[in-house]
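Why does residue order matter? Because the sequence determines the fold. Keep that principle in mind as you read this record.
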Amino acid sequence: QVQVAESGGGSVQAGGSLRLSCVITTNSETPFSMAWFRQAPGKELEGVANVYISGATNYADSVKGRFTSSRDSAKRTIDLQMNNVKPEDTAKYFCALRLTAYDGPWNDERKYVTWGQGTQVTVSS
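Structure:
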């Protein structure tokens, strides 16, 4: 059984930093893609960043240059370092993973099979 669990959310002022972590529990092979999504109230789910098994990363345009995603395969964790946060970053952040390879964009949420419960990030101005 594959499970993920996020931590590290909280409240922060604009311009500050937060670090989210996601622990993956699986006896399977290293996941093909591990990603962060977020959803703000009244808005659609949005892909924030992902890390492929190769180590390649992708970011949403809205967070490029501010957020960094990294993975530790040995520890089976993926982190999201959020710097210079903005009020529009306020959302519930989810960790998601897909074990097997697939064709399509990294931020297609339909391709991710395992999801965490999410962690809230609130940025005040």
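The mean pLDDT is 93.
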